[in-house]
């Protein structure tokens, strides 16, 4: 049996055995002096109205659950724990001491963004042109669009590949800024610590591996020493990664060699102008310099004419100077002379000598002639 209260205020069923209180549609249960809290059903929906100036507070001695009457969970509020939101009885968002955990996708409407610390930093997505923008300090700092990640000048139309960095480069103590920095956070005492770029791909139908890598390494593990270089490594089939060379302030070194004295620091090709005390009608010279080893070649012509026939033939104008004894090899040819000739290099010049008697070749020993020579020597 129930106590029934209708809208006219008529009460029926008021007996000691009554177990329920029934309020007919649109009949309200009013609580508070000013009827601030009202509970009622309007025939379609049920309402709890707090019409007063205070808050509506729901309290329990344990967890609070909001469910459909059939048992479908919507919200769980766990004492000293998480607040959980459900969709169709499946957990989608849960709070924790570290933040929130989202199960499934996080949907952001067109033109909306994730904001960090107000509007100073945010991430915005656009479905129309399929791009994601990264903004900070009022400017777009990066953009992901069409499989290309742009950093800096995101409007540049000259980009290619998958990563583009477009920004005005500047220097601080000779170090380039605002480009790409690959950093290693290992301790300075670790051998070859420094950032690395690896190049990898599939080596069979399903597995990937690293084929080669470039490392920017600290040259030693001395505290306070920041000498560095580039280390190049590659793999042979069936082997691990092997160092194939280094490039540092001392030059290029091959294999695992780290000795400064073994660095190849220079390679160049060029021309030089031979000049002689006997007078050339024409002369050309070329050279190749590898490290401190210089190889020269010369092609010249002389005319018969007046001159000091006893004067020893000397050629100057070498591209790099050498000291006596630094010559490695050399040969020369002068038309009309059958002697075994050789060059003797010293400083920036050389003389032509007869190997048989170790004497200088003089101007009087040949007239109009073609003079060719080559030599290899060490420069300081």
What does this structure look like?
The chain has 380 residues and is an all-beta fold. The chain has four domains: 2-57, no CATH class; 113-177; 196-262, no CATH class; 268-378, Immunoglobulin-like. It is 0% helix and 49% strand. It has no helices and 34 strands. It has a six-stranded mixed sheet, with no helix packed on it. A five-stranded antiparallel sheet has the order 7-8-9-10-11, with no helix packed on it. β23 (241-248) and β24 (251-254) form a beta hairpin. The radius of gyration is 45 Å and the shape is rod-shaped. The mean pLDDT is 84.
Name the CATH architecture of the largest domain: Sandwich
Q: Say how many strands there are.
A: 34
Largest sheet: 6 strands, mixed
Q: Report the top-level CATH class of the largest domain.
A: Mainly Beta
Rounded to an integer in angstroms, the radius of gyration calculated over CA atoms is: 45 Å
Question: What characteristic shape results from the CA principal axes?
Answer: rod-shaped
Number of helices: 0
Widest beta sheet: strand line-up: 12-13-14-15-16-17
How many structural domains does the protein architecture include? 4
Distance between the termini: 117 Å
Fraction of residues in H or I helices = under 10%
Mean pLDDT: 84
Here the CATH topology of the largest domain equals Immunoglobulin-like
SS strand fraction:
over 45%
* Structural class by sheet pairing and helices: mainly beta
Low-confidence segments, given as residue ranges, are: none
């Amino acid at each position: 049996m129930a106590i029934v209260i209708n809208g006219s205020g008529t009460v029926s069923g008021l007996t000691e055995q009554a177990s329920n209180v029934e309020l007919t549609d649109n009949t309200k249960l009013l609580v508070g002096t000013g009827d601030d809290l009202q509970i009622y059903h309007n025939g379609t929906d049920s309402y709890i109205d707090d019409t007063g100036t205070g808050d509506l507070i729901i309290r329990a001695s344990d967890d609070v659950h909001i469910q459909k009457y059939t048992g479908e969970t919507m919200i769980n509020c766990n004492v000293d724990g998480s607040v959980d939101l459900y969709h169709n009885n499946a957990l989608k968002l849960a709070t924790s001491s570290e933040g929130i955990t989202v199960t499934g996708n996080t949907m952001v409407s067109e033109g909306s963004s994730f904001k960090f610390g107000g509007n100073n930093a945010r991430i915005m997505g656009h479905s129309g042109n399929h791009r994601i923008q990264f903004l900070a300090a009022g400017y777009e700092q990066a953009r992901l669009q069409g499989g290309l990640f742009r950093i800096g000048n995101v409007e540049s139309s000259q980009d290619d590949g998958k990563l583009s960095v477009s920004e005005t480069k500047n220097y601080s103590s000779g170090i380039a800024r605002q480009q790409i920095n690959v950093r290693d956070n290992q301790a300075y005492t670790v051998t070859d610590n420094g950032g690395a770029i690896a190049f990898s791909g599939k080596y069979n139908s399903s597995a990937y591996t690293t084929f080669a890598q470039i490392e920017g390494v600290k040259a030693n593990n001395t505290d306070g020493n920041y000498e560095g270089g580039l280390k190049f490594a590659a793999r042979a089939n069936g082997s691990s990664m092997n160092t194939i060379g280094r490039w540092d302030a001392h030059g290029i070194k091959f294999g695992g060699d780290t000795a400064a004295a073994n660095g190849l620091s220079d390679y160049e090709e060029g021309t030089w102008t031979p000049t002689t005390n006997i007078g050339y009608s024409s002369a050309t010279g070329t050279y190749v310099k590898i490290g401190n080893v210089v190889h020269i070649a010369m092609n010249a012509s002389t005319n018969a004419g007046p001159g000091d026939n006893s004067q020893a033939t000397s050629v100057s104008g070498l591209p790099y100077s050498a000291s006596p004894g630094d010559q490695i090899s050399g040969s020369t040819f002068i038309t009309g002379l059958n002697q075994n000739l050789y060059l003797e290099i010293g400083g920036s010049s050389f003389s032509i000598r007869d190997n048989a008697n170790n004497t200088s070749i003089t101007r009087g020993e040949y007239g109009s002639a073609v003079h060719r020579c080559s030599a290899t020597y060490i420069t300081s």
